[in-house]
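User: Okay, second chain of the day. Same drill as before: sequence in, structure tokens out.
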Amino acid sequence: MSLLVVDRLTKSYREGKMAVNAVSFHLDKGECLGLVGESGCGKSTLARCLLHIETIDSGSIMLNGQPIEQLHERKLRPFRRHMQMVSQNPAAALNPKLKIKHSLLDAYEQFHHQLRLKHFTFTSKAAYIKQLLEAVELPASLADRYPHELSGGQRQRVTIARAISIEPEVIVLDEPTASLDVISQGAVLRLLTSLQTHLQLSYLFISHDLAAVHQMSQRILVMKEGRLVDQFDRDHVFHENRHLYTQELISIF
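Assistant: Same drill. Structure tokens below.
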């Protein structure tokens, strides 16, 4: 059974624009599923729908065999710890008024009553924070700093540490390297690959960068104007039967 199953998910806005149009896919345990498409094609809207940041018009979202698309906040809450998100703008994702250590504790404090951590221990707050920072290859000394005191790459590593802090099963990575320089991009992708193996994570990796998606993913979905127009195994990216839009993306690969 797949970990996450999305069936004909549809989302439109008041002005009539169909942002996500009958999108269906599945994500298996331990898999990285790539989603690629140009800016404005609906990728980020899809991500927000999966995490209930936005409501959907129709369709279904199944997590571990349980439908979650119609759950209200109280009943949805137990599922939230299983699916976390890393966005493209770490500066906006972190509260500028909170020290890094407080941002890292936020998810744990929300879900501690239902957590059975396998990879991180909680003998003390300081030890827990140190483990999280070490997991994303940051020194423990950063715990007492504010977000503006960190580089862009360091801030993104902190958001990754926060996402893994409660050991979710699924992480939605929405353009996680878009705001980073080339060197930082490569380092973050290598880190994500290492964490996936060590923590047994499943990723939905969303990007406009086909090269990054190809590097990270076992299977790739291609989105255009709200629809999935192509899907294939990574090894078949250059197959002659690829959709014309996929071929356009490949031409700048």
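The chain has a mean pLDDT of 92.

User: Thanks, on to the next one.
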